[in-house]
Amino acid sequence: MDVRDQHSANHPVMNLPPSLTTNRFGPSPPAHTSLPGMPGPQRGGHGPPPMGPPAGHGGPPPMMGPPPGMMNPFAAAGPETLEQFGMRITQTVTGGFLMLSMAMGHQTGLFDKLASFEGDPKTSQEIADETGLKERYVREWLGAMVTGRIVNATEDGKKFFLPPHRALFLNTPGLGLELLILASALPMQSKVFNQIRECFDKDGPRGVSYDNYQEFHHFMNRISLVFWERDLLKTFIPSIPGLTDMLESGASCLDVGCGEGGLSILLAQRFPKSSFRGLDIISAAINDAKTVAAAKHTENVTFDVMDAHEMPDDWEGRFNYIVCWDSLHDMAKVDVVLKKIHHVLAPGGIFSVLEVNAHSDCTKNMDNPFASTFYTNSLFHCMTVSMASEGGMGLGNMWGRENTTKTLESYGFKVEDCSVPDGWFNVHYLCRKK
Question: Which domains does the chain have, with CATH numbers?
């Protein structure tokens, strides 16, 4: 009796379909099919048409942010069967492990190096030599990439290559690069897994403090810079009526929850007549921001270690433009912070709030392909760092359009526009004082 038969004999109520009771790791799709979001068969470079043009061949740019109309690949068209659910869980678990290897490929530079070969097959030793890495580790990583249908292998399995269309997707600023950086959140946030587990208990801690997330600000700066360097000055700032003229003539600006300061530094370089100030509670992030600003000889930007809840009263009406980019939901007491921002915003000033593009009701996010990713990210960071503070509201990054708009309006702001910047995961709430 094999493992499958022994299991069925001991637990006859399961009656799993044959395709879910193999002694393999999990069921595989037929040879001519592929998992959602994954290309088809790999050997010899065969498979479906590429997602985009090979590098250097022109054509449309890589996707920026979630493509319009992109649906959740697991959305069911009808009643789900046991076998379909089993396949979906298998794909989810397998994808989670693959995500770790993808993060490793990005952080070690393996994807960059494979892309530089322009589809020319190389042995694992050649790849290791080119990257300065250990061959044995590179070879095991390649195993994950080939079976995960990301890297191709030659017919004899001795050489490996990254097809040009995949290199274009993964290495060009856009959705692919954003997803590779996002993959790095999994190993980073897994470090607090046991602490989050304890927070679930009724007598457990309220949350996990920022002190446990030493890498988070660097991660956020890297993934945000993909958008900022591409679109901040080209499309985002010009989309706000009157802001470009205000900044060119000279304005006082405040970046609340600035992290490593990437946003403020870019704006300061572009608008030398304006002054920019970034605030964050993490001293390491502020030190990094100061270092980068100094290296770029950007003298019209300053950074301070400061809790946004404690902005001084004598800042009343000081700032013409204030921005909270992916930071407001992390605050312990958003009501206090909004009162402070209202106090320091000048009459006629502009307040930009960037938050995840989602509804407040989770059932309305079912077709959002990234919803479960953001809820998990919130569980392992955004919500819990807010809850860690006494009286923290724990809004989470998925507090949604409806609740965000209601909250902003409750504290004296008029939301003049609520739009999604091209190629990003956020909603921009353009606000002024009522």
Answer: 39-67+83-183 (1.10.10.10), 191-433 (3.40.50.150)
